[in-house]
Write a structure and sequence with these properties.
Layout lengths: L5 E7 L2 H18 L2 E6 L1 H11 L6 E5 H4 L3 H17 L4 E4 L10 H17 L6 E7 L4 H9 L3 E2 L11 H8 L12 E5 L5 H13 L4 H21 L4 E8 L2 E8 L21 H8 L2 E7 L2 E9 L12
Parallel strand pairs: 1-5, 1-6, 2-3, 2-4, 4-5
Antiparallel strand pairs: 7-8, 8-9, 9-11, 10-11
């Protein structure tokens, strides 16, 4: 079996073009005995099942909302599935649906685009085969990024717009982060003993309505980030917290430039080793890092539980 990772992009205008590429891709995987996964919203799923006929029974259909729940976790799951299929002597074959994440919060869109790029590194050597169909009705920036993150076009030809994954990832971090609000909670950190930092974070997170399990995840994540700040940065160290929309935002800042190479925990460790910032990415809803000569900032976001709407009594 070919161990090369194949990552192709389809730019399509309508359902005829979509089905014309997706159906042969999926049916070909069934014929070859692949583990075939189709990520699709309900309408597309119905069309694909009808077009595939009996072959649809051997395709695992996954709801797009469920699939695109968390960028880092999805990459980790894909790597696990691809390696499992490889051990079984077959390949993982996935039809994606970027339209599900393409209209979300801009920061989340950037992370999904980064995953598209870095999957070319993470899944290298697994033999997996992924086709990502981008409707041309999606935002133009999303379609353009899709062309830059896939080495091949739908036909298998080399994609002239493809950008090196690490270069693409660096571009994702090129813009400044919004300034913290004036009422953000601020705690200077002057000692390597992080007990009081954890107490401080836990107190505010609970006060803002964060469930206990999420509080514990946040404490683990913040401890790891502050440890990295001490290891890679330099004083002064400072922690800031605030609520932004439905997220608790926790920021660690220091006065140095981190020297952690290009990855900053962007990929699952292979072979299994120290998880570090990768574990932080798995624990949080989002992780943003900016580092330069003026210092470094690491911003963690964890979603608060949705507050049920209160019925309005109009009687």
């Amino acid at each position: 079996m070919n161990d090369a990772f194949t990552h192709r992009v389809l730019s399509y205008r309508g359902m005829d073009e979509f089905l014309g590429a997706a159906v042969p891709f999926l049916s070909g995987g069934v014929a070859e005995g692949d583990h075939v996964v189709a990520v699709a919203k309900l309408a597309n799923r119905t069309l694909l099942q009808e077009a595939l006929g009996d072959a649809a029974e051997k395709v695992e259909f996954v709801d797009a909302v469920e699939w695109y729940d968390h960028p880092a976790r999805r990459l980790a799951d894909c790597l696990t599935d691809a390696e499992r299929a490889q051990r079984e002597g077959r390949r993982l074959r996935v039809l994606g649906d970027p339209g599900e994440w393409a209209r979300r919060d801009p920061a989340e869109v950037v992370e999904w685009q980064r995953i598209e790029a870095l999957s070319n590194v993470a899944l290298r050597g697994t033999g997996a085969f992924v086709l990502c169909p981008y409707a041309r009705s999606l935002p133009s920036g999303v379609v353009a990024a899709g062309r830059r993150t896939h080495p091949e076009t739908v036909t298998g030809a080399a994609n002239p717009s493809y950008v090196d994954p690490w270069e693409f990832s660096r571009r994702c971090d090129s813009g400044p982060l919004p300034e913290p609000p004036e009422d953000a909670e601020v705690m200077p950190v002057e000692t390597p003993d992080l007990y009081w930092l954890r107490m401080y974070v836990g107190y505010h997170a609970k006060a803002w309505g964060m469930p206990e399990d999420d509080v514990q995840r946040l404490l683990v994540a913040v401890t790891e980030v502050m440890t990295n700040a001490v290891r890679h940065g330099k004083p002064p160290y400072e922690l800031r917290m605030w609520v932004d929309g439905g997220d608790v935002v926790t920021e660690v800042a220091d006065g140095g430039r981190w020297a952690d190479g290009a990855s900053f925990g962007l990929l699952p460790p292979r072979p299994a080793g120290r998880f570090g910032l990768w574990a932080v990415r798995l624990l949080c809803s989002a992780l943003q890092i900016r580092t330069g000569d003026d210092g470094s900032i690491v911003r963690l976001r964890l979603r608060l539980p949705a507050v049920p709407a209160v019925p309005v009594n109009t009687g």
